[in-house]
Amino acid sequence: MSPQQPPHPYPIGTPGTPWGAAEKALWLSRQRLQRSYAEEVVAPLKAGLPAPAELIQYGTLDYARLGLGSYPLYAVRSRRWNPDLPVVLVTGGVHGYETSGVQGALQWLRQEFGRHAAAVNLLVLPCISPWGYETVNRWNPDALDPNRQFRPDSPAAESALAMACVAAQGARIDLHVDLHETTDTDNSEFGPAKAARDGKAFDWHAIPDGFYLVGDTERPVPDFQRALIAAVRSVTRIAEADGQGRLIGEPLQQPGVINYPQRSLGLCGAMTAARFVTTTEVYPDSPTASPAQCNEAQGATVTAAIEFLLRG
């Protein structure tokens, strides 16, 4: 478990008072580009995909009103879409700072997409929040968390455009795997920032040392979640519950699995009515995990989820 405690107080705003426009502008002014979406995400996508895959641009994020640039948004879909096959959705980079969510999706595209394309229709959105990827950030430039904005009339363009892309496929989604990480910076930066933004006290929880899954309270499917944990166990450590039987404050449902009410929270996993839904949480700050291992854990989850779907 991560022992890291948050800074007190957060350096922006007045404790107990929600941020206004001035505080949000100050927060935005402190963000810096740290890596390149064009080089690390777009270039690999354009360099070549498996033959059964096609690259589509599903929109553009334009933050010119904030003095920032624009970002083309890409998805990869099955070139030969078969209406008789089940549909699998994979999303990554909803939180841009969660690196293996993006790089794990790209690796899975290169290594596994072609192997599964004959059995299912595939739609992969590898980096939903490119500004967040470049600035290593949880929020978008409007200080909104895209993973709380998957709802009608979403104020976050990242979420709204992703939902529109999925809806445009015109098909029922059978399986959705959303790729995430839980990092030490959730306690040192992003959690305290959220509390300051909302004028609330920070609810600190130890960061689990290992991989875990977040199912949907309305669609728990415990056998499905159990199969994914079993597959990932051979790749990386599975997080253990704390002394209260919880992970990040939530009751453990089974080893390595907690549930959230995804729809009411506006999470990415709730954007469809898929029967099988899971959110991965990799712990990249563990002394026992490497970036390659984190990427592999993400890909192993996607593959295991497809195999479970096809067995059912």
UniProtKB/TrEMBL annotation:
The keyword Iron-sulfur does not apply. Keywords: Hydrolase, Metal-binding, Zinc. Its cofactor is Zn(2+). CDD domains: M14_REP34-like. PROSITE patterns: PEPTIDASE_M14. The keyword Mitochondrion does not apply. GO terms for molecular function: hydrolase activity, acting on ester bonds; metallocarboxypeptidase activity; zinc ion binding. Residues 33-312 form the Peptidase M14 domain. InterPro entries: AstE_AspA_cat, Peptidase_M14. GO terms for biological process: proteolysis. Belongs to the peptidase M14 family. This is Succinylglutamate desuccinylase/aspartoacylase family protein. The lineage of its organism: Bacteria, Pseudomonadati, Pseudomonadota, Betaproteobacteria, Burkholderiales.
